[in-house]
Model the fold of this input.
Amino acid sequence: MSDGTSDASRANPRKVREGVVVSDKMDSTLVVAVNERVSHARYGKTVQRTKKLYVHDEKNEAKVGDRVRVQETRPLSKLKRWRLTEIVERAR
Done:
């Protein structure tokens, strides 16, 4: 979209997820664990599924244990498809 519209007015808005930083050992990359609660297809019981996302952190500001908000973006490397938007809560 070259007319300068923002992400909010886009037809297919970018996904936003919230999770906990599991690893920050790589340079400008985080591994974030995102928990999602899903109802089991057959039994109906709520189960937790964890997915690890590789997140681009330009300034290396998030540390292990921080709760962060990430946003979907274009492919940045083989595995990185997300970027850090904000640190919601620092690790204690």
Q: What stands out?
A: The domain at 16-89 is CATH 2.40.50.140 (OB fold (Dihydrolipoamide Acetyltransferase, E2P)). The chain is about 0% helix and 50% strand. The radius of gyration is 15 Å.
